[in-house]
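Why does residue order matter? Because the sequence determines the fold. Keep that principle in mind as you read this record.
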Amino acid sequence: QLQLEESGGGLVQPGGSLTLSCAASQRSLEYYSMAWFRQAPGKEREGVACINSRGSLTEYEDPVKGRFTVSRDNTKNTVNLQMNSLKPEDTAVYYCAAGMGACDLVIVPAAGLVEVWGQGTLVTVSS
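Structure:
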């Protein structure tokens, strides 16, 4: 069964940058759409970004458009999330996820298309 592990979280000042990585094991992620979700304290989990299986299409939710970039390397079985111009409201636990389907659906938690979740990594944006 596919397993996902995130890394790269930490404390960063507002305006700073951080790159999250997601490493897959046990199976190849090449057939999955790969997405990033986040969950802030007291809030529901929300989609952040998604990239299709071939890496040819990406999808971003409005709060992160223009600031975050999702990428993948199927040869290395990894997915990255580059986060720039970070804001305090970006503070959350970030989860890597693998789903089957188009990104505009996978990125929606209520669609239920995520098959595998990582354990999450905490990002704190604070001065």
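The mean pLDDT is 96.
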